[in-house]
């Protein structure tokens, strides 16, 4: 077995163990974060059955998407969004996880083609209230959600967060439970929307995220190994 196959199996086993431990009967999907990694490694993971891939850098991601047609890959954009680059985002991705501005949402809606199914959107919440981090506050969530709900070519699926890094399991759970509660509130105000997604949990807080209802855990290093940013093309 290649190291990617072994790593994928290990991460999946960890997800399964957490699902059992926290009595999760519903699905927890693995989003394989392949940023900075070559298409050969994506193909290796794909051959193991992995279908959801997450990318952070738009130009790099567009090359990979073009190089890997007809493979049924579900492409997720999980990086910061520049509002002048929304057109390729809207046209080439299936999901965008980090929407935190009405202007970005409007531009994504304008750029998504009528022939495509609606673009799946998660709103990014700054759950730890860190001034330096992107994401809206919980207070801003209802109005942004209401605005996006009016965009016909976008479909809000749920919420995404990157909590402040912390090694304490209880503390990790507390952050994730705030995001889960926010989703429950949104579901009450928008019973018509398919709000079924909590994009939360990375390598060091995956168990706490699954305990609190994560439906997508985003894992990179534990599958593909450490990233070498010096080797990346500056595109
Ligand atoms: C890079 C990244 C990940 C994956 O991080 P790893 O530490 O490599 O597992 C997850 N989520 C987001 C938003 C990221 O940018």
Structural class: alpha/beta
Shape: globular
Bound compounds? pyridoxal-5'-phosphate
Mean pLDDT across every amino acid position: 95
Major beta sheet summary = 8 strands, parallel
- Radius of gyration equals 17 Å
User: Helix content range of the residues, please?
Assistant: 40-55%
Question: What does this protein look like?
Answer:
The longest helix is centred in the last third of the chain and has 21 residues, at 169-189. α4 packs across α5. The chain has helices at residues 3-21, 39-47, 58-67, 86-92, 102-111, 141-149, 169-189, 206-211, 221-224; strands spanning 29-33, 52-55, 74-77, 95-99, 119-124, 154-160, 197-199, 216-219. Helices cover 40% and strands 16% of the residues. The mean pLDDT is 95. By secondary structure, the chain is of the alpha/beta class. The chain binds pyridoxal-5'-phosphate. Residues 33, 35, 56, 78, 162, 202-203, 218-222 line the site of pyridoxal-5'-phosphate (PLP). Pyridoxal-5'-phosphate (PLP) binds next to β8 and α9.
Sum this structure up briefly.
With 235 residues, the chain is α/β, with parallel strands linked by helices. The chain has nine helices and eight strands. It has helices spanning 3-21, 39-47, 58-67, 86-92, 102-111, 141-149, 169-189, 206-211, 221-224; strands at residues 29-33, 52-55, 74-77, 95-99, 119-124, 154-160, 197-199, 216-219.
Structural key phrases:
9 helices, binds pyridoxal-5'-phosphate, alpha/beta, 40% helix, eight-stranded parallel sheet, globular, 235 residues
Topology of helices and strands:
Blueprint: H1 3-21, E1 29-33, H2 39-47, E2 52-55, H3 58-67, E3 74-77, H4 86-92, E4 95-99, H5 102-111, E5 119-124, H6 141-149, E6 154-160, H7 169-189, E7 197-199, H8 206-211, E8 216-219, H9 221-224
Parallel strand pairs: 1-2, 1-8, 2-3, 3-4, 4-5, 5-6, 6-7
Helix pairs in contact: 4-5
This protein binds pyridoxal-5'-phosphate (PLP).
């Amino acid at each position: 077995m290649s190291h990617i196959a072994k790593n994928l199996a290990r991460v999946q086993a960890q997800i399964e163990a957490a699902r059992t431990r926290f009595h999760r009967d519903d699905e927890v999907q693995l989003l394989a974060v392949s940023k900075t990694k070559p298409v050969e490694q994506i193909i290796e993971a794909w051959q193991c059955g992995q279908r959801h891939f997450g990318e952070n850098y738009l130009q790099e991601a567009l090359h990979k998407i073009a190089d890997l047609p007809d493979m049924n890959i579900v492409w997720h954009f999980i990086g910061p969004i520049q509002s002048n680059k929304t057109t390729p985002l809207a046209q080439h991705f299936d999901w965008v996880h980090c929407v935190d501005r009405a202007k970005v949402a409007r531009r994504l809606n304008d750029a998504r083609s009528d022939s495509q199914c609606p673009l799946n959107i998660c709103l990014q919440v700054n759950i730890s209230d860190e001034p330096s981090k992107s994401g809206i506050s919980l207070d801003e969530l209802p109005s942004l959600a209401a605005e996006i709900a009016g965009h016909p070519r976008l479909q809000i699926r749920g919420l995404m967060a990157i909590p402040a890094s912390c090694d304490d399991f209880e503390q990790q759970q507390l952050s994730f439970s705030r995001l889960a509660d926010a989703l429950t509130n949104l579901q009450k105000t928008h019973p018509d929307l398919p709000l079924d997604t909590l994009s939360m949990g990375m390598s060091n807080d995956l168990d706490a995220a699954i305990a609190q209802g994560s439906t997508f855990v985003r894992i990179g290093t534990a599958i593909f190994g450490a990233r070498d940013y010096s080797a990346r093309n500056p595109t």
